[in-house]
Amino acid sequence: MAEIYHHPLFPSPSSSSCSSSSSNDSCCLTSGREIYTLWMKSLVLNGNGCTIYDSNGEVVYRVDNYDQKCCKEVYLMDQGGKTLYKILRKKLRVFGRWAAYRYNDSNGEEKRPRFRVKKACGIVKGSGSFGIKVMGCGGENKASYKIEILKHQSVYRIMDVAGGLVAQVQRKHTVSGVMLGEDVMTLAVEPDTDRLLVMGLVVACCLINH
């Protein structure tokens, strides 16, 4: 049996007031700006993955690949270990592509991916950043979001097709302004945003970036 451990800076997991795995996607829309902490470690001892905490310090999402270092298939789960997204790597030429399949309470895994991500073409060499295209959100086979990754600053920006900011990930600072380690990040999600979609996109970004 896998052993669960907890980071000393964060409290133990507790149940969230919102059912993240509900089949009603409207419950996943943010009513205001929400702040999360991403800890790039698994709660499973010697496991591989990451843990996402809300602003109250409670575990709300996690990725645990246990002892599997291969990242061709990962699962985004809620705090109780219920699968919300399965993210698969599809090999295509150089960079490959990731496809994310949503899980719901009534039908389990959906047959069609909710979104697909791949590195955008025309990346400027030496610029320290690259883009990611997000295809298929909403059922259309066209770009729905774009993601900019500034590698040297450890910043991810998720934007809609019009260039509006949807969410941003960056290194976390303490209240006194001290920057924490590279494995602790802050995720800010803008209002009226599908938070579960953002979580899936962030996990896909981490997979591509690493």
Automatic annotation (TrEMBL):
Q: What is this protein called?
A: Protein LURP-one-related 11 isoform X2
Against InterPro entries, the record matches this protein to: LOR, LOR_sf, Tubby-like_C
Entries under Pfam families matching the protein:
LOR
Q: Which SUPFAM superfamilies does the protein's record reference?
A: Tubby C-terminal domain-like (SSF54518)
Q: Which family does it belong to?
A: Belongs to the LOR family.
The lineage, from the top, is: Eukaryota, Viridiplantae, Streptophyta, Embryophyta, Tracheophyta
